[in-house]
Design goal:
This protein folds into two domains: 1-68, Glutaredoxin (3-Layer(aba) Sandwich), CATH 3.40.30; 94-245, Glutathione S-transferase Yfyf (Class Pi), Chain A, domain 2. It contains nine helices and two strands, in the order αββαααααααα. The protein has helices at residues 38-44, 70-79, 82-85, 97-112, 114-119, 124-147, 158-177, 189-200, 210-218, and strands at 57-59, 64-67. Helix 7 (158-177) packs across helix 9. The longest helix has 24 residues, at 124-147. The two termini are 13 Å apart.
C-alpha cells in the first residue's frame, strides 16, 4: 500500500499533486501521473460529477477509486488488508464492536463533524447548537478518559483512531479558525495526555502534519479572506504523557 500526499491548500482544480519545498512529503502521483485528484475520479467514471475528497482509496489493479469515505476505509484497512499489512492487530474486536459503534456515532456527530458545523454555520443559532454539542461531548470524553485509558476500555480501538485526527488538528485550526474557542485540547488534562499517548505509538507521529493542517485550513477563503497563514504551531505533540497510570496496553507499532 503506497500513499500519495496532495498539497494541503486546495487550488482552483482541487487537490494537486506536486513537489513542494515547503511540504517535502507532498509528491507527484507516481502511480498514474495524475496532476489533480479529480483525474482519478473521472478515470474511474468519465461521467462523475460529485465531490472530489480525501482520503481516496485507489485500486492499482483495476485502476479505479474504491472508496472515499474515511470511516469505511479505516474499517477496510483493519479487516480486508490483514493479510497484507504484516501484523494481526485488530482495532475492531468482536467483543467491543457494539461499544465502538456507539462511541463512533457520538464522536462523528458532535466532534469530527461538529467542528465543521461550527466553522461553516450559516446562522448564530446553528453555530451555538454545534458549539454546545461539541464541548458537551469533549467534556464527556474527558470524564471517560479520567477513568479508563482508552475510549472502549483497556485497548486501543478504531474509536480512538477516529477521534485522534480531530484532536491533533483542534488547537492549530479548529479552536480559532472554526470558532471552537471555549477550550483548547491542551486545557483538557486527560484528552491532551491521551492524544500524546496515541501520537507516541510507533508509526503515528509520521502521519501528523501540523503545518499542513494550518496551511490547508487557513487557505479556505470563506473563513480566511485575507489568505494570511499563521506562522506558529502551538501544540507540543511530543511531550510526555501520564496514561500509564491507568490499566491498559498501547499498541506496539503500526
Amino acid at each position: 500500500i503506497t500513499i500519495t500526499c496532495a498539497l494541503p491548500d486546495i487550488r482552483e482544480q482541487g487537490w494537486l499533486f506536486e513537489t513542494s519545498a515547503q511540504f517535502p512529503e507532498c509528491t507527484p502521483d507516481m502511480v498514474n501521473g495524475f496532476r489533480h485528484l479529480h483525474q482519478a475520479y473521472t478515470a474511474s467514471n468519465p461521467h462523475y460529477t460529485g465531490k472530489v475528497t480525501v482520503p481516496t482509496l485507489w485500486d492499482k489493479k483495476t485502476r479505479r477509486v474504491v472508496n472515499n469515505e474515511s470511516s469505511e476505509i479505516i474499517r477496510m484497512l483493519n479487516s480486508e488488508f490483514r493479510g497484507i499489512a504484516g501484523d494481526d492487530i485488530d482495532f475492531y474486536p468482536a467483543p467491543l464492536r457494539s461499544e465502538i459503534d456507539r462511541i463512533n456515532q457520538l464522536i462523528y456527530t458532535s466532534v469530527n463533524n461538529g467542528v465543521y458545523r461550527c466553522g461553516f454555520a450559516r446562522s448564530q443559532v446553528a453555530y451555538e447548537a454545534a458549539y454546545n454539542a461539541l464541548f458537551a461531548t469533549l467534556d464527556e470524553l474527558e470524564a471517560r478518559l479520567s477513568r479508563q485509558r482508552y475510549l472502549a476500555g483497556q485497548q486501543i480501538t478504531e474509536a480512538d483512531w477516529r477521534l485522534f485526527p480531530t484532536l491533533v488538528r483542534f488547537d492549530v485550526a479548529y479552536f480559532s479558525l472554526f470558532k471552537c474557542n471555549k477550550q483548547r485540547i491542551a486545557d483538557y488534562p486527560n484528552l491532551s495526555n491521551y492524544m500524546r499517548e496515541l501520537y507516541s505509538v510507533p508509526g503515528v507521529a509520521a502521519t501528523v502534519k501540523p503545518r499542513q493542517y494550518i496551511a490547508g485550513y487557513w487557505s479556505i477563503r470563506r473563513l480566511n479572506p485575507t489568505g494570511i497563514i499563521p506562522k506558529g504551531t502551538p501544540v507540543d505533540y511530543e511531550a510526555s504523557n501520564d496514561r500509564t497510570r491507568l490499566p491498559g496496553m498501547a499498541t506496539a507499532a503500526l
